[in-house]
User: What shape does this take?
Amino acid sequence: MGLLSRSEIRCLYDRTAPIYDWALFAYRLLGVQAQRRTLIRMANIRSGDTVIDLGCGTGANFPFLVHAVGPQGRIIGIDLSTSMLERARALVDRKGWSNVDLIQGDIAEAPNRFEFDAAIAAFALEMVPNYSEIIATIARRLPPGGRLASIGLKHPDRWPGWLVDFAIAINKPFGVSRDYQDVAPWQAMGSHLHDITFQELWWGAGYRCVGTGSSLGTAVATA
Assistant: This one.
């Protein structure tokens, strides 16, 4: 099967957009919203900042980001899927947020298209084969002190095989497969960013990683 291509990712999320928020109910029970809030706090976003939300989906990060940047700040949500962005637009319109811009496009292109103070990726970087290149570009483009913060799924190395197979099966609608076993955005972040904070989540099936922009990477440290 292999890693999903750009077009396959777009088709997958166009297809799952109508049920996406409902399908994440189990993750909400596992505290994913609290983890999003923590991720954004660790990104050290200040009032007035411009933040790129890479793979913004239906806008699950927006409530926390809007609070972080304040009325003078700006949020740029990027996603390949037009259907996911339609749902994000409905949320933005319903909440009356005037400082959220939604862009349909490849997250690999976003860092070169906009000036930004921080970047957020929630369940996004591990889905794209060229995540290391994206991280390298973000690291070069971040201003002094600017941070990239990412949260997502990872291969749970200490789980028994049958449990890994079960987890893959229930996450298949989101494109998860065995082919992603060696995908590790946090390692690329350790190569391209500094002041790295890494923590495993959900008993090893997820991760949170935050780093500060620099071309000089350091070893990944566990929080």
About this structure: The beta strands are 50-54, 74-79, 100-104, 118-122, 147-153, 193-201, 206-213. The mean pLDDT is 89.
